[in-house]
Amino acid sequence: MGSATAWAQCAGGAPAPGASAAQIVALAGQGQTRAPGVEPWSPAALAQQLGAGADMRTLALSSAALLLADRTQIRMSASAQVRLCESQPQRTLLELAAGRLWARTKKTPATLQLQTPAALAVVRGTDWDVEVDAAGRTTLTVLSGLVELSNAQGSVQLGPAEQGFAEPGRAPVKRVLVNPRERVQWVAAYPTDTTRWAEFQRPDIAPALADLRAALQAGQWSAAQAQLQQMAARGDAGDAGGGSAVVALVLADLDLRNGQMDAAQARLAAAWPRTPDPRIAARRAELLMALDRPAEARAWLDTTRTAAPAAPELLLADADWHRLEGRGDAALALYRQAADAAPAGTAQQAAALWGLGRALQERGDLHAARTTLARAVALAPDHPAYRAELATADTEALRLADARTGFDAALALAGDDYTSLAGAGLLALQQGDAEGARTQLLKALVIEPRYARAQVWLAVAEYRLGELAAALDSLDRARLADPNDPLPWQIEAILRNDSGQPEAAMAAARQALVRLPALKSLNPLVSDSQGSANLGKALGDFGLEHWARAYAQQSYYPLWAGSHFFMANRHESDYSRNSELYQGYLADPLALGLGERQVPVLPTEGHETVWTTSAEHNPVHSALVGAVTLRGLDASAVPMAWLARATGLRMWPRGGSGSYWLTAPMATLGWGARPTDQLGLFVVHDQGWDRVGYPGGLDLGPARFDGVARTHAARTDAGGAWRWSADAQTWLKVHHVRSTNTRVLDFDAWGPQNSRVQDGMDGVMLRHVVQLPGQRLSAGWENVRAQARSGLYDPGVPWEASDGTTTARFDMPWITSEWQHGAWAWEVGAAWPRLRARYVNRYYSQITNEDFFAPDITEGGHTRRLRPRAGLSYRFGPGRALHAAYIESMHAPASHTLAPVAVGAIAIDHQYQRLGSLARKRAVQLDWEIDARTFAWGVLSSQSIANPTFADGRLLVPNLGSSVSDRAGVLAPVGASGQVVIDAYNGNPYFSQGRLHQAGAALNRVLTPHWSVLGSYTWAHSRNTGVQHAGNLLPGVPQHTGVLANVWRHGARDLTLASLVYRGSRFADEAKTQPQGAGWSFNLVLFRESADRRWAWTGTLQTPLHGTVRPTLWTSLRYRMD
To answer: Could you tell me if residue 859 is inside a domain?
Structure first.
């Protein structure tokens, strides 16, 4: 089809009146437009809307960027002419008469057709480059996706890295390219102010340069280029000192305007020997990095820096190279050198501060980044990129009002500044406007497609809008721009796991783990209280529990909340779980407000209300629970999260000894905030009111209970974290707990007696963490005071009372240091705990508080002694490591600790310990990822445990209601997970002393992309070493435990989990009076959720297979509303 005919047909269309086909989002130099049927051209303007049928052309040394109505992005090179025949969400028709354009089609499936004088291109995605020369010949290069190139003589199908060539009257042909991306290096954003160089700013500017500046400022690019070429031929620039350097620099700028990046760098390379100006060397290094030639850039910098080692321009270029290569510490040092070397108050210093602030921002040090970028803006207030970077840092810090002001100011200076447009997209995304965010980000990325951060933000916006394929495409672009960064892979793992693609999510997590040493910061990545952003999450949700723990441990970072939240669900004991949860809320108090509306990747303003009801039917009880939860995140003034929950539990007995009824209303309030970039705060308060009764009464031996027992528990936890830098934080946490239980006991000897049990606990915990190159140092101190008081009060003799009070005081300084060198990692630490317990039994007057008899006082505890711990790991590769550890520990009389609850991958087994226990553990563990679908695990461990007692055998620290009233685990939103409990201890560690030897092995296997299986076996040999029950088995520990579990992911978040668990024979008590037989149990979990996440249903079945115990059924229905 000839060009004239094609254009005539296009002009004959009937465009929709008033409809916009495209918007001009960038214009460098001069462009012109004309409406359909209008002959004269008019000057184009930034942000101009173009209707269907409109023509757009760029003049010499100019370029433009368009965003079409169907979200297609187009970049036009110099001297290009395109017609927008039709651009609608359903179909787009374009014609290219001359010049070159690059396009990316985000719509799936693509419905774009491009007509040239030689051929018709039918585009099925995703990005491509096309050029039409003066003779009408067409060259089309496909970077990704598929394009059919055809004319009347024939057609060819072009795939990635293929190029088609067509000329009028001949059939198209194709060829394969080695590096197709070289074809689109011209598609990038470069400085458009060609008069920014110092020679043009001098008050005594040379006449020749003054004339040149006037031509450049007037947009007379061709005339200016001719003048520069004459100056270059003469070898000077009139009377201007250093003139030959500015001639080469401006000519290179004009080469870039013409889309000739390689010619620009070659020009600068040729100019360097003649004019060894540091700006020439630095500018060429920048262009080599933009051309994806880092090795050549490194060699060039090494050579040229020897000539000017202290030149700020070269220091800055060297810092940029290190930043792009993921060498953050070296980049920061070079940026600081550049800022110090640059003359104070100059544009050079502003540029160095901008680079330093950007690097600090990427490292997650937002306070230092915002301070540094503010200095850059103060030095160069009219530079839009500096304002935009500061506003972007404000956005990441959730100072959204400051961010909006900054973006408005930056876009007022330059409406096509891609950093401002991208940052405005991030702002919209964090305010919950995914559609607006996508539009802004598409505008930014058509100007600078290699802006990696914007590609990541666009991926999140696309996913929230239901466009998974477009989101994954954007993550691919981010990786092309920054191949060393693990963050795009980590986000892909999150999105694929959430969309029901577990095996693909695992593959992405594996790639992230490989690149983890180049990680800049996890600060931009938010995690909910389930640890959904953790690298192990996809494996854990797929039932591959050992594999998940290996990935989580290998990527563990104590200053990131996602590590703590994910590991909290891996630990077998409530003590360890609570410890990780509170550390997570200290690291990120805003996690309290993250809900179930969407998969958490970036913090987003909003609120939700979740209504939940559940019912349980087990052999002993039937229960009904109702709950309503309000949570949200707001950053309009100060970033703040909140949570409020009310829960009601009603339980009915089903008969049998000890069966009881229960009513338990509960309330929880939580608040978290970041008043400053450095300070984080949270407060959680719980209240519970229980009423319990036993139909038919409860026989307690010397007494009988026939009434109602009432318990009131109140707990407050508060904490604060101070961020000294991206690599150092100090945490402080306090808690205050009170619990009171009252009931009437009818004693055979004394008649009715009022019984009251009061527990209390107060604690202060401190921890400091600092990350150094190759080393991590943690230190802390904890102080806990717990009290349990139990008394009988005769209502007939109200002035007398008898009670016993146990008071436990615990304090512990501790320190641990971790080192990593290559594949080796080792850890050494120690704690100096001390526990003092005092029991006082009194019979006294309630009126005068005087004792009728001398109190019975008993004291005990553990003296202060060094408790060392050490660990060693060797990592063979992702998911492959050998770990060994020796750990001595003391269980605090509290519900949690801020000290580490593991040494490397070896966890402290708090589930076998009681309050005040001393434990010594030795273990070796092997993690081995056999292939992409198989993981093996093995462990050998031996530990001795001593639970503290008084001389008469009574527990030193009794059971405390306040220690089990910790509800940190229920603060998190409920989500779907195929997590398999691999070796749960279902006994009660009520014994004085004992030894436990264990050996375990497991295999995790992916059978199909949606079906996994886990098998594990644990052998245990336990012995009671206490005086009274020496030689007996430890309670609840079977010799043989086996688990076989299957998980099916049905799509999105729906799943089914079925498992068989075998436990050998055991005893429930250390005296061997309560035997428990060996047998299998079957567990089934079903989870279904609506696509909009509003409705979710969970059903479970648990039943022993021997048939003598009725099954336990549980179901839950959840509804979410915004």
So the answer is: no
State the Cα–Cα distance between residues 278 and 315, nearest whole angstrom.
10
**Residues of the chain above pLDDT 90, percent:** 68
Q: What is the DSSP letter of 921?
A: E
CA distance 1104 to 283: 73
Instruction: For residue 323, give the 3-state DSSP assignment.
Output: helix
Q: Give a three-class secondary structure readout of 361-402.
A: HHCCCHHHHHHHHHHHHHHCCCCHHHHHHHHHHHHHCCCHHH
Phi, psi of 1024 (to 5 degrees): -80, 125
| Stretch 108-136: mean pLDDT | 87
Q: What is the CA radius of gyration of the chain?
A: 35
Decide if 131 is inside a domain: yes
**Tens-place pLDDT, residues 124-146:** 877 889 999 999 999 999 988 89
We report the CATH number of the domain holding residue 21 as: 2.60.120.1440
In the predicted structure, residue 108 carries a pLDDT above the cut 70: no
Q: Which residues pair with 87 in a beta bridge?
A: 92
For the record, the structure tokens of 555 come out as 């990527």
- Structure token digits, residue 56: 């757009």
Residue 46 maps to a domain? yes
Cβ proximity of 430 and 635 under 8 Å = yes
Q: Cα 997 from chain centroid?
A: 38
Exposed, middle or buried: residue 313 (CB in 10 Å: 0-12, 13-18, 19+)? buried
CA–CA separation, 505 and 548 (whole Å): 12
Q: Looking at residues 56-85, what average pLDDT do you find?
A: 92
Look at the alpha carbons of 570, 576, 582, 588 in this order and tell me if their dihedral is positive or negative. negative
Q: What is each CA distance from 89 to 69, 71, 73, 108, 333, in whole angstroms?
A: 6, 8, 13, 11, 49
Are the C-beta atoms of 739 and 961 separated by less than 8 Å?
Answer: yes
d(CA 474, CA 469): 9
What pLDDT shows up at residue 7? 42
Side-chain-side CA neighbours of residue 1047 (13 Å): 30
**Strand 162-166 with 606-617, pairing:** unpaired
What tokens does 406 get? Answer: 């900054």
Count of C-beta atoms within a 10 Å radius of residue 191: 12
Structure tokens at 559: 């200053």
In terms of Cα–Cα distance, which of 83, 979, 9, 1092 is closest to 569? 979
Q: Is 706 exposed, middle or buried (0-12, 13-18, 19+ CB in 10 A)?
A: middle
Mean pLDDT for 612-629 is 93
The predicted-structure confidence for 236-247, as pLDDT tens digits, reads as follows: 554 444 468 999
Asked whether 1023 and 1034 are in contact (CB, 8 A), the reply is yes
pLDDT score for 1088:
95
In 3D space, the residue among 1010, 1006, 1089, 1096 whose CA is nearest the CA of residue 1054 turns out to be 1089
For residue 943, the cross-strand partners are 921, 996
Count of residues in the chain: 1122
Q: Answer whether 1018's CB lies under 8 Å from 996's CB.
A: no
For residue 13, give its domain range.
3-184
DSSP state of 1111: -
Torsion (CA) 349, 355, 360, 366 in degrees, nearest 10: 80
- The number of domains in the chain is 1
Residue carrying the six token digits 């604060």: 720
pLDDT band at 970 (very low <50, low <70, confident <90, very high): confident
* Amino acid making up residue 940: L
Is residue 668 included in any domain, yes or no?
no
Round the average pLDDT of the chain to a whole number and report it.
Answer: 90
What is the secondary structure of 273-300 as a DSSP string? HH---HHHHHHHHHHHHHTT-HHHHHHH
- 20-28 and 63-68 beta bridge pairing: antiparallel
- CA 752/CA 745 separation, integer angstroms: 6
Nearest to 1065 by CA among 1043, 1037, 1044: 1037
Q: What whole-number distance in Å separates Cα of residue 729 and Cα of residue 286?
A: 35
The pLDDT assigned to 240 comes to 45
Q: Locate 211 and state its tokens.
A: 């004339």
